[in-house]
Predict the 3D structure of the following.
Amino acid sequence: MSNQKELYEALIGHKNTDFYMVYFQRAEERGYTPMSWNWPAFLAGQIWLIYRRNYLWAARYFGITFLISIVSVYIFGGAEAENSRAVLFTSILLFQNVYFPLHANGIYYRWAKREVEKAKALFPNQLEKQKEHLSTKGGANANVIFMVISLFFILSSILNSMQAPQG
């Protein structure tokens, strides 16, 4: 696992490498991804995915949340129906605050494993090129905080401009 470990470390980057390597090793030994709690995924799920450069799962996270909204409104009545709001709120809460944080490390591991396999296929028997390739694919996206703050201000401005004038 030494080459594999080096490749995972190149992909993970410098932030929380030890934490993820312990989880990755446990998953490798067991042959499956064990459930474990991920606090950043609990506190900021989609932002954590973007921070970890897992953009496909960030889109899936949004899609699942959106799908839950559509299904609950369709099945349980209009958005104004009391039972629809309760089901919607509970479903989204369970997905974002229970299911996702318990499976986030496994999602990250499977993504990392696929990226490592792709790097091995692209650069067979070239460890340094594999590590270089993985370091550009992974790591932490430090700009995500600025992106989120900017998006917040843009959306706030748009919503503020849409309000009807008072008076």
About this structure: The first helix runs from residue 2 to 12. The chain has seven helices and no strands. The chain has a mean pLDDT of 86.
